[in-house]
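Complex record, two chains
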Amino acid sequence: MEELANLFHGFAVALQPFNIMVMILGIVLGVIIGVLPGLGGANGVAILLPLTFSMPPTSAIIMLSCIYWGALFGGAITSILFNIPGEPWSVATTFDGYPMAQQGKAGEALTAAFTSSFVGALFAVVMITLVAPLVASFALKFGPAEKFAVYFLAFCSFVGLSKEPPFKTIAAMMIGFALAAVGLDSITGQLRLTFGITELLNGFDFLIAVIGLFGIGEILLTMEEGLSFRGGNAQINLRVVLQTWKEMPAYWLTSLRSCLIGCWMGITPAGATPASFMSYGIAKRVSKRGKNFGNGEIEGVVAPETAAHAAGTAALLPMLSLGVPGSPTAAVLLGGLLIWGLQPGPMLFVEQKEFVWGLIASMYLGNLAGLLVVLTCVPIFAAILRIPFSIIAPLILVLCAIGAYSVHSSTFDVVLMLVFGVLGYLFKKCGYPLAPLVLAIVLGDKAEEAFRQSLLGSQGSLAVFFSNGLVSTIMVLGLIALFWSAIQEGYGRLRTSAV
Amino acid sequence: MSNTGGSAGPSHKAVEVGVTLAIALFGIVVIFGSVKAGINWGAEGPRAGFFPFYVGLFIVAASAMNFRNTLREDDGGVFAAWSELRQVMSVVVPTAIYVGALPFTGLYLASMIFIAWFMRWLGKYGWLTVAAVAIGMPVVTYLIFERWFMVPLPKGPVEEWLGL
């Protein structure tokens, strides 16, 4: 019951006029970011983070999280109308969304996508409302060993669940940890890995890495492909919306399944992209009309969109309650917390009630506002896509430079951003995943601190990570996640040899 | 692969081997730096290089595995055609000049020239369109960032002369 009172208090915070204003602003900016190639959720939020420096933290997080919801909505627009996924998680939406648009059913496809996104997000927010306080109060009892075990589990899930080769994931992740270690060591106060370069004293800021890896890297990829946009017109009117809404309840089972897949993949740091693919794949296998998937089946739009949005939202659960972000965008939001002077982790629920519940309430309102905005303004957003890339690209590059500069008012960071950009391009083409790299830069210091404090307590014995039931369980789960693909392969071999 | 068949370019395998070796080298640098910072136990527990030392070891080990896997793979075709790489470089090189010029010219002047160059060179727009976007964007940026949200951006001699 206390949670319900807190939530109502949160609604009171989120409904303040200024907060509603930043909410709408965030949604609109987010949709634009989602529509534009080269600007995604993570780097869009990172670039706009400096705008929030002078805001109260609650308004700041509301604006940034709304940019995130907007980007999730926006990705669907380009997928359906232009067959160009504005975001990686909307790739699966193109499979059936674009054929629908070609058949003149763009309005239905867009309505189905937006509504599914909303349903997925709502499901995840309700879950966060109910589960996050419990997880947080549980996590308050964690010592350094348990904390490290949680980080261990998060990073192992990356290796086991990502579709990239495991050793590439490990290499990318460890590069992130190494970059995080550069500069002042927080425990001994000693400098390390700076090699006498004064610019490296403060280490690498992950926001610069995000802007470079995702923003600049994406633009370079788009340049290589020589993108040109061709697509139909977007027509949504009330009749189409109501007609589609009448059809949607028939897919409640697909919807529920996608919500669950999305929440699960969002909490474990697998993220929205694999969630959308998995949900699409399962829907295709299970559905009666599965054979027709790929030819413009509305269920093929519902499944990936619901899962992607549920995963994107659920990624905030571990970020809020444990301080472990479930996605790169959640990591950027976590970086925002640090900049606004808040300590992410379970203590937030005790010390910053207004902030946490204001954010959760804004998730309900923001997604509702997002649904209304995209349903009414689709043609405007689609028009943005018709602006040629040779105008958009330099503007985005300048925006990235501004974002990178304003994090620390340092021009050296802008140079770093470009280096990260080229790195992002090469990594992406060679199949190195970027998300674990970014998360390792964010969490590197904290993971290392937890690791060293645990070892201090145990006089250097690794047995501390298996010293009680709780920590052993988390560590074993981590190890299972780490070797998940090997386990699956072994199990598959056993089955085939048994037959 | 997005490249069209038959167009020449560096092979995917060669680029991937290069990236793997570069990552391994980075790992060696990390190990070297960690050893310098001290990897054993000091008076207050593990010393500064303790954790990054193992991170470096992991980087080198993972790179070794990646190297082996890359060599085993069949030839994966070209990494990107030369024409595509030229496209990429036509963004990287001017952006590098832009980034290098920022500390001296300030953000606004550099951005104007950069946007104008990009639109004129790659987009072949008329001067009027070019001027509108190249001047409009920095002005809007100034209003949003410096006026409304009070985020200071780098300025050069021109801004000083204008008294902004």
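Note: The beta strands of chain A are 183-184, 191-192.
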